[in-house]
């Protein structure tokens, strides 16, 4: 029994430890962020409201049906609703009825409201997609930032190890009299600088992890980490396209344009609805009513006759009313006219918004294209610079070990090398993100999700 408990405890600890050390992939991060994002949840509720609005609009085509019932007591001198005679007594009456009405013609308001509600649902769905895209884009950016900080941390640690070995060689060179002993202080200062860079790199990594964890709506992010993925620089085919071709495709793909275009259609329906308010409307109606009295009726000879049975009275006093009602608007204080003018102004505003959205999209695509192309050229130039820095450092290192260069020369060359290594990492991940944005405009999903 004791062994079983021990095995259970070990198994539990292993499970907890495995969960704490989970490495999140980019796909998992995007899916988790979209599932838990507050804005996404809010727009999902807006979708439900839009679906309810469609049901409301559809209900306008259906006839309404209402039922009424009342029971009253009359005390004192009252008119008997059955005999029409004033009587000083306590009586009871039950009345009931039902009514129904249906719009026969209402200037196509109901049809346009129904079409508008369907367009509103489409807009809400587009808004949902747009928010998901924005969340995914932010997650990708934060994810790549963590990868950059991880690689940069490795570079700084490797440089510290290299400088530590160089300090040992410098001590040997000092003992051999090949370099002055003062150079050791410069080497120790270099190691101190390396430690400082490692601390800065570690801090930057922690902050980037925290930023991504917050995007994922995580409460406990102390143990949060992502999977170690190596992204190599690869020229993308998207740069073989022209900005014009990317824009032409984006006009049919981008969600923000679909939202703006759909809002124009909604505004057009508002104009149609406002115009219908000045047209005559025709309504059909039907009503049914009946009543029952519990009072005794005088027989004319000083006696009273008991009231008829409930259902007999209900059948005897029932009545029907039906017909059509025509309503012709003549003057309503300019309300209808002003609503038409207001809806037309709103339509023009939405048209301008659509045009501005199209212009913004074109500008963003040209900017994204320039950024991606510039990032690629910067990476290639930095790569060439790194090769030159490596050769320069190798040459300076040999001269330093032979006593032909000072520690200052050595440290200066090394600093330039480390900075170029960091620049190469930064430009690589900047290129990766910029090309993702450009591909996104071209219709390629930010991240493939099931």
Automatic annotation (TrEMBL):
Family matches, as SUPFAM superfamilies: Outer membrane efflux proteins (OEP)
Signal peptide location: 1-20
First-listed, main subcellular location of the protein, grouped into a coarse class: membrane
Pfam hit, one: OEP
Coiled coil: 250-277
Compartment(s) where it occurs, according to its Swiss-Prot or TrEMBL record: Cell outer membrane
One MF term in the entry's GO annotations: porin activity
UniProt family annotation: Belongs to the outer membrane factor (OMF) (TC 1.B.17) family.
The protein's name: TolC family protein
Organism: Paenimyroides baculatum
